[in-house]
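About this split. The held-out portion is used to measure sequence recovery: a designer receives only the structure tokens and must propose an amino acid at every position. Recovery is the fraction of positions where the proposal matches the reference. Here is one held-out target exactly as it appears in the evaluation file.
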């Protein structure tokens, strides 16, 4: 079967399915959560639309109490799983295309979720369409498992694993090619201080797994206009000051990025804290901000270079403050050479030795994923990838991102981004960034790879 030519036949259908899903701003919203909609109205709407698309394609669909849905091909006892998610991160600012419009330009499709992860989800569904339309005989059924809470804690997969029979092997199309056999651990750490500040209110960042791209704060007793202008210029930032009665409203613009690659972003929240600390001579505030700006965690006492997974990374994703409190939520991605206790111990030592009035008040840890890259499962996926990509060089890899692969046994991340993406003069945003986009030709190649991989694994 020439799966590349088969994928091309389904290009129009792929775009139609994707447009329907991208039009739904499926951001988790606990304020609208209810029975069978545990992550809110918009996520429920996306789940219903995915089930509708799957049913129209001729597959059997099941609702897993609003936490996820399953789109199935076949009725065998054992299954091969594909795990994808329908929820998105906040849309954010800075878009030059309609983030919900699925606009197509010069071979690219733009929109929030087209890459992370609605496009890959539809790619997997399209691969299933190809197998079904060509009557490919399989020994195991294929289950496309669509979750609704990947970006905010993966409660959907926790629920799924507790209530459903699990596939014998799975992959999630939510990262890069080739096969990803290891993922860093993810430690959420919340630190708090009851220090006094001139900040009347500050709330920056909505997700810990996103570098804060914009930050603002209301300040009292502000007389530092020239200092603020100098700070912005000296750090290559933009911002502004607005006055509200006797308060100054400061705005700082940074650059958003995924928390697994924080060096590609500029944390506006930490810069704002740093400026306030410097301007008002609150050393504990500025010193803490400067420590957290080191995205490799060296200054925080947690830095390490992993033998397989590379360096630990540190991102301050959510910051809130007022006149008597500062609270910071940290996203720490760590290799399998260290662990939660060592990280906490190192950071606590730095806080104590530097006499910083912060304490760790909450942690939530997900251990690293590490599978044998020489296993039969991974080698089957590598064989298919090499066959359809003509890439005989790139090895199986590890990443700093956290995917559904950690939630099911014998599961890995597999595509859809290729090692050497096509070049373009357009601004192409990645996951969690403005102008998030996919290359349509590359997605067709990913569909072919997924169809061939599912046949290989399910035969």
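Reference sequence for scoring:
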């Amino acid at each position: 079967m020439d799966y590349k030519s088969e994928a091309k036949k389904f290009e129009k259908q792929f775009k139609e399915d994707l447009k329907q899903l991208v039009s739904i701003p499926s951001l988790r919203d606990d304020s609208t959560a209810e029975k069978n909609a545990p992550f809110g109205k918009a996520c429920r709407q996306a789940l219903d639309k995915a089930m509708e698309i799957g049913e129209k394609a001729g597959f059997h669909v099941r609702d897993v109490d609003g936490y996820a849905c399953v789109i199935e091909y076949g009725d065998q006892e054992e299954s091969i799983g594909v795990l994808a998610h329908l929820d998105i991160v906040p849309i954010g600012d800075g878009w030059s295309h309609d983030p919900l419009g699925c606009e197509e330009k010069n071979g690219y499709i733009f929109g929030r979720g087209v890459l992370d992860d609605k496009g890959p989800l539809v790619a997997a569904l399209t691969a299933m369409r190809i197998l079904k339309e060509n009557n490919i005989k399989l020994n195991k059924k294929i289950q496309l498992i669509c979750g609704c809470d990947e970006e905010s804690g993966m409660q959907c997969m926790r629920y799924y694993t507790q209530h459903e029979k699990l596939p014998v092997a799975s992959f999630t199309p939510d990262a890069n090619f080739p096969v990803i056999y290891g993922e860093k651990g993810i430690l959420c750490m919340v630190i708090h201080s009851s220090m006094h500040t001139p900040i009347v209110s500050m709330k920056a960042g909505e997700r810990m797994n996103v570098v804060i791209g914009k930050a603002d704060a209301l300040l009292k007793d502000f007389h530092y206009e020239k200092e603020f202008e100098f700070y912005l210029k000296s750090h290559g930032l933009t911002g502004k000051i607005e006055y509200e009665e006797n308060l100054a409203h400061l705005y700082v613009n940074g650059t958003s990025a995924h928390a697994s690659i924080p060096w590609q972003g500029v944390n506006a929240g930490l810069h704002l804290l740093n400026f306030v600390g410097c301007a008002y001579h609150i050393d504990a505030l500025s010193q803490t901000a400067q420590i957290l700006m080191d995205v490799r965690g060296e200054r925080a006492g947690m830095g390490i270079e992993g033998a397989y997974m590379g360096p630990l990374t540190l991102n301050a994703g959510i910051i809130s403050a007022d006149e008597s409190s500062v609270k910071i939520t940290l996203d720490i991605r760590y290799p399998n050479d260290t662990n939660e206790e060592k990280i906490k111990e190192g950071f606590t030592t730095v806080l104590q030795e530097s006499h910083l009035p912060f304490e760790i008040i909450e942690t939530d840890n997900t251990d690293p994923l590490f599978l044998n890259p020489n296993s039969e499962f991974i080698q089957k996926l590598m064989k298919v990838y090499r066959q359809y990509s003509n890439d005989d060089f790139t090895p199986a890899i590890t990443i700093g991102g956290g995917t559904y692969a950690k939630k099911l046994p014998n599961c890995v991340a597999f595509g859809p981004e290729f090692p050497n993406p096509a070049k373009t003069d357009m601004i192409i945003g990645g996951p969690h960034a403005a102008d998030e986009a996919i290359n349509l030709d590359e997605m067709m190649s990913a569909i072919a790879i997924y169809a061939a991989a599912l046949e290989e694994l399910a035969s």
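Annotator remark: The first strand starts at residue 60 and ends at 64.
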